[in-house]
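Consortium newsletter contribution from the modelling node. Members have asked for a concrete example of what our holo predictions look like. Here is one, prepared for the iron/sulfur cluster complex that several groups have been discussing at recent meetings.
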Amino acid sequence: MAHEVERPTYEVMGPIQRYDERDNVFSRESLLPGSSEERGYHANHPELEKIDHRLAKYFFGWAEARSVIAKNAPSEALPESTFRAVSALALPDAVDGPVAVRKVRVAPAEMARNIKAIARYLGAAQVRIGPLNPAWVYTHRGVWPFFSDYRPNPPAFDGVPNGYQGLNYGDPIEIGHRYAISMAFPQDPDLMGSSPSEASTFEIGRVYASGALAAVELANYVRALGYPARAHHLRNYGVLLVPVAVDSGLGELGRCGYLISKELGANFRLACVTADLPLATDKPVDLGIQDFCEKCLKCAKNCPVGAIPTGDKVAVRGVKKWQLDAEKCLLYWGSQGGACAICQLVCPWSKPPTGFHRLIAEIAIRLPAARRLLVEADDWVYGATYKRAPVPSWASERGTGSPRDVGDRKR
Ligand code: SF4
Ligand code: SF4
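And here is the predicted structure:
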């Protein structure tokens, strides 16, 4: 396969230290001030207490606004429609479950082809299979909705599968699966073009929900074949999806912290299934992204709060990478009342998959000398500065619009 290499393009500096999900900003923002989890975490990390309380203010402000049924405008209800569905798919017996006692025997290459075909049928635009590096498994669970205090009205589920780990905040996570099936789900460029807005947040939730459903369905399928499998998606991760996807050859890690794929750029979301069935694996790819990002910096220049570094990579838990200022980024989301995706959208790789753009991507990959010119050309043609597009009328504040507007969405 084109552009495949033996080793991923991130630089390993030494032993990779596994990541505790409790250190993630999304986990820290959802620590209820005064709860035992919050007090316990900040006793060990007093330096983060102040910023985490600022993050929590936004998080719990949103949660309160979400729980109010009456909205001021139809558009305010949009994000609720998609994000809530993902939580139901995060329950222990949705992501994992019993394995069929009889194994279906299929050769690894044939099984990999079959799994990819099913994943695509379930909605993945791209799917690749890599080995699961145990270094990418979280050490401990850190994200709601599994704290008891945070589940006033959980969807019904019928018990925790035998051996399931990672149910509660702080539970250790161990996943011994050999393989990871990484899937990419594209975001609608029109809705995302209004980012940050309720419409783009709605779209992000829609794509995460599609990915979560596909991952849960694919994991069910693998277990029905007689092999262990677990889904990983927005509301229930056991592994770090970006490096796992890099190892599978779905793309490379970019300066903006997102995975950059040749076909989708950065305008997509990931979901994954880890599994232990015989599978042929894909290799990582070298698309020249590391060098391209050195020359580009468009995401860093357009980030409204300077959360993306303009300088060099640094060592993070044993891997050299550009380190995003996640607190700055998330505080900006809070100030906007919704998720920002400007860095995903301005990335020169995030272009519609036309023949022309495919050709440009191929040139960027194969001709390192052309990259600087391509960076400048992207600014000339598409503008150096992000311009927020209007929200389509059906998703606008007034919520008006004809069905034809909805049908016009390109997918
Ligand atoms: S999501 Fe927005 S705020 Fe966060 S890094 Fe990207 S551009 Fe900056
Ligand atoms: S915008 Fe440029 S620097 Fe940022 S991730 Fe994309 S290619 Fe790299």
